[in-house]
């Protein structure tokens, strides 16, 4: 599945994927150091579906931890949503990472904490 994704303009429909496929997709690092969340960062509906499908916790499933890293340009998915002033995307990404251990995302977003606080106070 990951091999079929082109380097530029990656488009995939997260709602078409099973939970197991999303788990595999979430754990992949794509060209240029991007993750699935990098590709979905400015697609609100896709992010909502990803968040919903990865946060399932019940008798059969544990939540899926999505790696949250910077790409080769030094940008995390949160950086990308900040660049485009995508407030809804920022909120969804923060919801996506809020229950993860700080090591999952802390280093990737420490440089933009002031920007996040500034947006929340606006």
Q: What can you see in these coordinates?
A:
This protein is mainly α. The longest helix is centred in the middle third of the chain and has 11 residues. The protein has 7 helices and no strands. It is globular and about 40 Å long. Helix 3 packs parallel to helix 5 and helix 4 packs antiparallel against helix 5.
Provide keyphrases for this structure.
122 residues; mainly alpha; 7 helices; 45% helix; globular; disordered N terminus
The helix content, as a percent range, equals: 40-55%
Q: Counting H and I runs of at least 4 residues, what is the number of helices?
A: 7
Rg measurement, Å: 14 Å
Number of domains: 1
- The number of strands is 0
> Whole-number average pLDDT?
80
Name the poorly predicted regions. Answer: 3-7
What fraction strand?
A: under 5%
Give the helices and strands, then pairings.
Layout: H1 19-26, H2 36-40, H3 44-54, H4 77-83, H5 87-97, H6 106-109, H7 113-121
Quick take:
The chain is mainly α.
